[in-house]
Design a protein that fits this description.
Helix content is 34%, strand content 15%. The chain is α+β, with helices and mostly antiparallel strands.
């Protein structure tokens, strides 16, 4: 099983790159610590939020991550090939 440490490293490595929500909205994010800040909102998404989403992957859409903060952004990041690689 892929660990949050490995996934978080990938997430940090992709900071500043463009991602897209399931509806096609572009966004970027920064990782100033154990959370990331999405540029489209004032929302911060914690590393813990991503750790709790991992067991639900792969997910067909953000609705399958119900209960996770910022599910559209969490899903877009975790399901992107740069982050998921071949792990889910």
């Amino acid at each position: 099983m892929t660990t949050i440490e490995l996934v978080w490293e990938r997430i940090r490595d992709c900071a500043g790159q463009e991602f897209r929500t399931v509806s096609g909205l572009p966004f970027t994010y920064q990782v100033p610590g154990n959370y990331l800040r999405v540029d489209r909102t004032n929302r911060n998404l914690s590393r813990t939020n991503f750790a709790k989403a991992l067991p639900r992957l792969p997910a067909a859409g953000p609705g399958q991550l119900a209960g996770r903060q910022g599910a559209p952004y969490t899903w877009a990041i975790l399901m992107d090939p740069r982050v998921r690689q071949e792990d889910w």
